[in-house]
Amino acid sequence: MFSLKIKTYIAFLLLCTTLSGHAQHVKEIRYLSGKDNEHTVEWDFWVTGGRKAGKWSKIAVPSHWEQQGFGNYNYGRDYVTYGKNFRFHDEKGIYRHAFEVPAHWKDRKISIVFEGSMTDTEVEINGKSAGDIHQGSFYRFKYDITDKVHFDKENALEVIVSKMSADNSVNNAERLADYWILGGIYRPVYLEATPKAHITWAAIDAKADGSFRSNVYVEHIQENSTLRVDLKDKEGHVIGTKSIRLASSDSVRSVTLNVDQPNLWTAETPHLYHAVFTLTNSRGDSYQTTERFGFRTVEVRQGDGIYVNGVKVKMKGVNRHVWWPETGRSVNRTLDLNDVKLIKEMNMNAVRCSHYPPDKAFLEYCDSLGLYVLDELAGWQQAYGTSVGKKLVKELVIRDVNHPSIILWSNGNEGGHNKELIDEYAKYDLSARTVIHAHHRPGNELNGIDCNHYEDFYSTKKILEGPNIFMTTEFLHAQDDGGAAAGLADIWDLHWEAKLGAGGFIWNFADEGIVRTDFNGTIDVNRVNAPDGILGPYRQKEASFFAIKEIFSPVHIKMKNLPADFGGDIEVENRYHHTDLSACTFQYRLVKYQQPYADAIGIADEKIQALKAPTIKPTEKGTLKLNLPEGWKAYDALLLTATDAHGEEIYTWSWRVRSNASITEEILPVKTATPVELTEDSAYYVLKANGITAFIAKENGLLADLANDYSMKLAFQNGPLLIDGEYTLKEVRTTSVGDNKTVEFAFDGQLDYIRWTMRPDGWLKLDYSYQMNGKRPYAGVSFDFPENYIITAKWLGNGPYRVWKNRLQGVTLNTWENMYNDSRAGIGPWEFPEFKGYFSDVSWVHFNTTQGKFLVATEQDDMYLRLFDFYGISGPKHYPELPAGDISFLDAIPAIGTKLAMGINNRPEVNGPAGEMTVLDGPISRTLYFYFGTPRGEKENTQFVMPKENILTD
Q1: What's the CATH class of domain 26-195?
Q2: Average pLDDT of 241-257?
Q3: pLDDT at 442
Q4: DSSP string of 721-790?
Q5: Overall CATH class of domain 555-657
Q6: What's the pLDDT tens digit per position in 263-292?
Q7: 3.30.450.40, 2.70.98.10, 3.40.50.2000, 3.40.50.300: which CATH number matches 677-931?
Q8: What confidence score (pLDDT) does residue 497 get?
Q9: How far apart are CA 109 and CA 652, in angstroms?
């Protein structure tokens, strides 16, 4: 024991002596700008045109100068209207900043680094050019300024940034694009210092079999230097090491080693490692740098599919712009993290960086949280020239090469492809990822992958017949409330089932709305050009967000309604690629919902039980077994929640247990009653009971007026108007059945009858029947009610978001309440859920108005509620058309298409069977109950309390 202590002490002394005599270095960073859009530094600034032109002032860096009140705004397509004169609309910004260099950097290599600047950037240090003008807005570039800086006094930095490039191909690729075109130094600027002998960068290729290769690029190597690579796991344990001798002539050396059974990186299992590169000379001086990576093998097997670690994967993806309303493309790590989380929350596994490389932080979060990434060279329908393009490909790949999340390089968008650049990627990418072309015309497939944009359901079926893998890099355009999830279920199932289906990327993630500093902070989406998001500009969740979450759920459940003989077994398909469903957790709830007159909404009573997750391998099917207790059918609904291996909710499904007839029967009793009166005059039949009076027009059977003894008159009237129906009045009958009195109108034509029945308690019952055969965009009846009288609507049904016929997913059965708003997706004010729209499977709805409250309930299932005037897509003609009236009770609703109301692709039927109009065959009958007011005493005994003993456990 004593000898061991002596040896340890001697080793410690030797280590201390070694450390005291040797220099250990890492790259040192000193920011000249702020680190992000929230942490900026003021520089001196001059702009040549637009606002504040021609005078020196201050500007926050990083930023776009438009967002600091300088210059003019331009959407990319603006330049198209300028034609050859677009150069006259260029603006130049002159930046000046003074900085100091630490004295201990004197013997080091010093570089100035720009993470992103729009567009041509010319840099001077102390009056001397730092190097060639950099062209290209979205790329990291640097200059060696070692011989230009002072160590004993301040240094002067001057940067001239031109919005328009002197290279027309750069303008064509970046500035004439379908997105906002801004100017300025919008990503950070910093100095970096390294020893003269150092590692400049390293490219890693780490395969699923544990093999590790790295090309390590070095500078100014001294004789007898050593390069060591240590591979470390997340706990910091060394799992592999390798040292090699370097020669002074070396500029790049390859290092290989192997690791036994590493944890593999996938979007489902984002396991990461670190490679620590240490350069040591004969004196013991060292320089160290670290790269994060993942072990994974990506293969494009032509005529088959895209494989990750030997498993075929299909992309559930979205296109994403780097964007924030106040600061444009100048963002921060928190925004990048939140965007990755939102993409994951939609059960997506992939993102396309459209149409340029994103901030480094975004890729880091894709690595750590798990997303497959298409990293894209800019080129919106026109390509970079070869000379400048080669430089930008190099900058793109060197910065991003070691991110395991990046599985493919995209060489431009929709014709913006310079084929002379295809081979450039592999010069810097040791793993030789496949290069694709994101295109919108047939014939541009590359390396066995067809990425054709905006194919519909039927053309997709054709392309999936081969011969190429089909991975559509843009589809289902989400302008306003169109596209995105509408039709997605049909097209996604095509890709899932097809051998050559590789999935795709929805256009796009968020509305590109800019806060205009020249219009008092108004958010501008450039009308129909940029409101294309699943989310609003501030990431407000539109209805499509939740529908996508259900459609892309890796726990795939097809059951729409509980079978009559349901015993607790639910068929489940595992749509993970690498995860067994046993890694997930499940819980079901039996719930009772709040009643109409309760102050609260949501669940009133519930029983909860955790479930044992079934063992179901990826892409296979199995059964989830629910142990239902006795009396479970007394509850209103069954809810099932699946949670993934990381503790995040996958989705919650809901199914009705009780019928609408049972629910309506429960809410009908009223404690007070009076005899029913039926009178008439020349124009109306008048039904009155319990203080409520209804006037029914003799000429057509429609509700003409209402009165309530306890409140003002209600303007709910002119219904039930049969939508788009033709009919004529045939006869009228009045009858008494028990204490009730009835007026029935019979018709010839598509409307069979309207029957009004007043009960002594004041409930007004409406029965109607109609027959409209053939294809119909919508079917049902409407009433008029002034929109400006509505305050809130509370209902039992699916919600809280509206639906379309081809986007019924993403809503849950519950009691919901929305306050009136006039929000329109893509237009604003981006207040969700929208109040107006179609709402599905409604049992009852309770309206709160400036004239009082009234309740409508139905006995039949599957009723859609339509609230007021709205549309899904704006364009030459707002789309789709609405039924007559203000409030409708419907048995069929329309589907929604995609961008541009007059375009052929807008026809929703092209995106799959769900987009086709409803085919009606045979009579449709429905019963509605109305209570115009709040029954006296009905707030009593309407709240349920959940007893603790109702919690079930295994």
Answers
A1: mainly beta
A2: 94
A3: 77
A4: EETT--EEEEEEEEEEETTEEEEEEEEEESEEEEEEEE-TTS-EEEEEEE---EEES-EEEEEE--GGGE
A5: mainly beta
A6: 999 999 999 999 999 999 988 889 999 999
A7: 2.70.98.10
A8: 97
A9: 56
